[in-house]
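Anyone have tokens for Luciferase-like protein? Sequence:
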Amino acid sequence: MRYGFILPGGDVQTIPEMAGEAEAAGWDGVFIADCISIDTSDNPPGPWYDPWILLALMATRTSRITLGPMVAAISRRRPWKLARETMTLDHLSQGRIVLPVGLGAARDDAGFYKVGEEMSLRGRASIMDECLDILNAAWSGEPFSYEGNHYHVQRMQLLPPSFQQPRIPVWPIGVWPHEKSMQRVLRWDGIVPQKKDGSDTPLTPDDIRAIKVYVETNRKLTTPFDIIWEGETPANDPEQAATLVRPWIEAGITWWMESRWNNATPQEIRERIRQGPPRII
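Reply: yep, here.
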């Protein structure tokens, strides 16, 4: 069981420092949001920073913890460029990078509709699948070519191969119990679970149990597989924190992600980081 912290944003100078503080406080991973700009009535434009540059800085401030975006909207990125960026981070961190991926938040206005990116769920999913295929081939360090509906790659080779083998772990968002989305998850290394669109009920520990059984029954790969869940726990009440986390651990998650999306101040985020993860003893 591992415990991560999702940084929603913050000052560009202090985010790498937060990663170092998280490692010192006993967290197992630190993750950073991937956003271009959100501009809505509820969320006016605010400061956001490039996740890959920040992750590189975070890698140099840490030596143990896992790092990654949460989550990367890869349908708007050139896969060969993303392959080079992630491969570089993997070597810089000596194998501590993971790649959670999703379709991206459509409300990330400057990252999608304001610049003409694909907006349909089906279209973004198709682009994401092709991007993942290319990443997987590029990380191998072997020559490859690719012919898809969206991408066409003539024979090429990117060296060095990823530090982690057989590849950098990929954690797609998996929409439960949507069959096509779950079939995608089976091809990779973890799941960031979400409930099917239109559902008015959140996922429960019973859903996590069902997801775990589904993966164990249907996944053909023998490599490790992670189930990620995020939430918020009080730092000043370890017993209550344990009560909140325990049902999810017992259901089968392998990562608890502590998150603070609701306008927490940088000071509050740093204080929560320093208090450490909500471990179950």
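The domain at 2-274 is CATH 3.20.20.30 (TIM Barrel).
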